[in-house]
Amino acid sequence: MADSPAPTSRTPPADDLGDHWQRLTNTLPQPPNAEDRHDLLWQELSAQFSWYNRAATRTRLWYQVLKVAALVAGASVTLLAAISAPAAVTASVAGVIVVVEGAQQIFQFHSNWISYRGSAELLRQHAFLYAASATPYDQQTTRRSRLAAALMDVATQEKSNWSKVMEQVPGKG
After folding, report:
1. Residue 12 and residue 119 in contact, taking contact as beta carbons nearer than 8 Å
2. What is the pLDDT of residue 12?
3. Residue 64 near residue 109, CB atoms below 8 Å
4. What are the helix (H) ranges across 22-142?
5. Angle of helix 109-131 relative to helix 40-82, nearest 10 degrees?
6. Full-model pTM
7. Helix axes 87-107, 109-131, angle to 10 degrees
8. How far apart are alpha carbons 51 and 116 in whole angstroms?
């Protein structure tokens, strides 16, 4: 009698399990119903999520680049002063710090990053609940109107957050 190969305990890839949506990615889960996937409200949710997700990533990168540049310039000023570099060189590098911090204040990369990421994650949460037909999207007769209200709430909240940030920045509007 030939030895049969031992059964493997290989777990099928996530895509084989139909649960690829469980991975946190830059995409949203898709509703199982084709009609829902082509619905204007779902398309709007997807578009808003994509915009906020990209904007959050972009503003996070700008914020981090500017902060690292300020740190490098600050350390360089200290080093230049320690080695008695010409005053013009030291002052120029110090000027970079002023410009970098000024850009952060004008464009509010940190505040916008936090706000955009919050909106993207809120939209992702609504997408998961909608795709799963979970509360508050579990009633077929009210799920579209609830999704429309949720999208309006996110847009209103984001506009309110943006207005508050802009009120704090003189000369920006």
Report:
1. no
2. 46
3. no
4. 34-37, 40-82, 87-107, 109-131
5. 150
6. 0.78
7. 40
8. 9
Token pair recorded at residue 23: 């991975």
Q: Which two tokens stand for residue 132?
A: 């799963």
Q: Tell me the one-letter amino acid at 59.
A: T
Please name which of 59, 41, 46 lies closest in space to residue 116, comparing C-alpha atoms. Answer: 59
Reference 27, options 146, 102, 123, 104; nearest CA is: 123
Distance CA 126, CA 146 (A): 10
- Cβ atoms within 10 Å, residue 100: 20
Separation between Cα atoms, residue 43 and residue 157, nearest integer Å: 20
Supply 71's token pair.
Answer: 């740190």
Q: Model confidence over 51-85: pLDDT tens digits?
A: 999 999 999 999 999 999 999 999 999 999 999 99
Encoding tokens for residue 145?
């109107």
Cα 22 from Cα 2, distance rounded (Å): 42
